[in-house]
Every structure is written in C-alpha cells, then in structure tokens.
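User: Structure please.
Assistant: Input sequence and predicted structure:
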Amino acid sequence: MYPSSEDHSLTLPIVDPSLDTPQLPLVFNVLALYWGEDLASHISEKARVQYKAVRGSVLIEGIEVAEKNGFQSMMYKSNMKDIKKTIDQGIPIITILPGIHDLVQHATIVCGYEPHERRILTYVPEQDKQGAVPEKRFEQEWEEDDTTSIILIPSDMAEIVSDRDFKFQNSNRSCLVAERLRLKGDIVKAVEELSGAVSMDGDNPNAWYALGSAYSDQKSDSAVECYRKAIQLNKRYYLAYRGLGNYYLKNEQYDFADEWYSMAIDINPVRFGPIYKNRAFARLKSGKGPVKEDLEKYLRYMPGASDRISVQQAIKEL
C-alpha cells in the first residue's frame, strides 16, 4: 500500500468504468476499495432512479455514501507539494481537472509521481497501467479549477492528515450541496447555501462561481458580479469565463458572449467542445467573427455530437 522512498506510486484496484454512476462516482468506488470497503452495495434504489437522467457525477452523493460507511472526506484547495506529501503517506488523492468533449470537468485520482521525470501519475482502470502527465501541464490545467482536491480516508485513520490546513473545506462542501439542490430544481435554497459559502470563505472562487451559476438560473444580474469575483480571485478560472459567456448569450448580448467565450477558449481551447457552437451562434447573431471555423472546431472536439449532420449542413451553407 505505502510507496517506498524511491517508488512514489500507489497500486489501486481495477474497477470497471461502467460502474461509474452519478450517485457513486468511480473515483470514490476505487478509493473505498483501496481502503478495503465496497460502497457499491450501499447505493439505494431511490438514488439510482433519482439521478438516472444526470450525466456526470453528483459528488456530494458519493461523499455522503462514503461517510455513512466509515470514511472521512475533505475537499479543499491543494497544491503540488501537498499532493506529493499525501502520496508518500500512502493516500491516493482525487483532483478536479478539466473535462473533454462535452464534459466540462472531471474527477481523477492521483496515485503517484515521478520526481526525476517530473510527471504526475493518474489512475487508469486497466491492469499495470497509469497515466503520466508532465507536472507543469498538470498544474496548469488543475489551476483552472482552483487546484481543488478531495481526500477520502477511513475515519479511524484521519489523524494522519490532522495537521493539514484544509482550505475552503466547508465552503467547497456547500458548493456540492448546492449543486445537488440545483439538480433538483431548488434554486432558492441553492442560492441560500452558496451565499453562506461566500460569507464563510470570501476568497474561494469555487463558491463565487457556483453562486453566479445559481443566480444565472434565476436570470439575475447578480450572476455577473459573482462570476467576475471568481475571475478576480483566479485569473485562469475557466468555468467563470464560460459562465459569463452563457449568461450574455441567454440575454442576447452577443458581443459580450463572444468576448467571454473567447477568453475561456484562450485559457483552454480543448476543454469543452460545445463552447465553439455557442460562440458560433453568438457571432452569427452579431454578424461579427468567423462562424464556420467555430462550427468545424465544435465537430472536431465533439466526435460523437448528436447534431453532427445538421451542423455539417450549416457549414456547407455558410
């Protein structure tokens, strides 16, 4: 289980990716099995039905299932030094990273690092395989989600990490609770939860972004201030730039939508394919900027796009 002084990597159990569900994200299943507990049998049928239409993970559900079964969790602002310290203590760590195609972000497990080659090792659900990402690139992409990490550890072992400063732990949890409220359509309670989060940690960009998204659901102008606050705190906070683009697109302010989408794309041009279709629409409406190129990029970064035929037809007509 524990890495040697020379081999800074952990061996994790292989879990079938098909077992990844909204109420039990694969990363929690893997870590629980690493610690000797199978959480899959603890998922209620009500939870399975409730999130049947949800694409992606409802992290708070996985966390609560784990906590009900003897685990303690911390979701906090981390850094590279903290990751390496955690690995060397024999603890795998979840990091929140940019997604691909139409998945805007995803949780992945860091299971080691290579100090000489300066690479971060990530979990791959295949025997004897690990992902290896250059440390500089990993850190740059991780910063887009404010270097957020999650530790999941048996409660009776939590003393190992008791000396840590888990920055934003409580406000980040509020963000997850609010995410679930938004999925259930209770935007008013989500705003209340997130207002408490920014009061608790006014320097947490995750909380400001989430509050901006909840206000955007309400079509409230307060969304703009919240998104801008997230960007002020973290200049590379991709989701806030995209959030402003979405806000202005919904409000038919197409020049502003184009501007903020473009800034998001400058940060990471491959993170989220649909942003190109949104920018193309904004440019088509404003009559400014290349539309065809954006639609072509949309199809390039969305190989499985359900609207591929109609978009291809639109490209021919431009």
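Residues 169-183 form the longest helix (15 residues).
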